[in-house]
Amino acid sequence: MTSLLELAADKESAEVTDWAARLGWVVGLLLFIALVYWLMREGWKWRGTLQGDLPELPTAPSDPGPARLELSGRYHGSTTAGQWLDRIVAHGLGTRSRVELTLTDAGLDVVRPGATDFFVPVAQLREARLDKGIAGKVLTEGGLLVVTWEHGGKLLDSGFRSDQAAEQTEWVEALNDMVGSPDDTNDKNSTTEGTAR
Fold this sequence. Notes:
eight-stranded antiparallel sheet, elongated
């Protein structure tokens, strides 16, 4: 009988949870997350201020003409041309969104529900290509339609992902035919040189 009493006395009671310490950790973690979010937001605003020299985005003309191609998908962002991580945030270009693209003889109409729409006149289009990443978004090789265009004396790359990925190749061909991309010019020059010889 004595041994049972000794065993009972030796048994340690379950440790009581220190709710004050646990609550302190949770509050600290929430404050840290809020601070990180605030710093990211301030960085975004600061980047927008640095890009303040970028003029307002052009809007579509009242009669752009019949559609040559149409595409539904996602807009993944715009960057300085050739620098896939240098995101442009001015005028809402940094906001990812759904997108409806329409290519006409007048240019490229970019309609973004919940974000700023814009229009790229054909004279400002430079080239199109398939790529795998833009503005920190990485997809499979050739999974992104990237359109290079000029705005305010600056070359920009804008990335789009079609809901029907197979149609992106058709867009690259149509855009490059429309603007006469450097690759097309080189092919024409080599053909001309071959004929001259």
